[in-house]
Amino acid sequence: MKATIRKMGNSQGILIPKTILAQLGLEDEVEMDIVNDTLVIRRPRNTPREGWAEASRAIAEAGDDVLALGEFPNADDAELKW
């Protein structure tokens, strides 16, 4: 399949047909590499925030999850009208 390189703002790009994106499971983001003069586009290997829950749990279990600023009172809250 051939595709035309098009001007897109200050850049250039190609349009990938929706059917191809669906077949590959590509949605919002891709990874791109150049391998032997070939542009390779693939699904991102890692999902955003992958492993954050486990890391947070390990920090809490180690007791290293103290507040950075410590506790502080909200003495002036009584003056606020909601």
Automatic annotation (TrEMBL):
The record's Pfam families line, in alphabetical order, gives: MazE_antitoxin
GO molecular function annotation: DNA binding
Q: Does the keyword field hold Transmembrane? A: no
What's in the keyword line of the UniProt record? DNA-binding
Any idea where the SpoVT-AbrB domain is? 3-46
Q: Say if the entry is tagged with keyword Lyase.
A: no
Q: Which domain of life, per UniProt?
A: Bacteria
Please report the name of this protein according to its UniProt entry. Answer: AbrB/MazE/SpoVT family DNA-binding domain-containing protein
User: Encoded by which gene?
Assistant: chpB
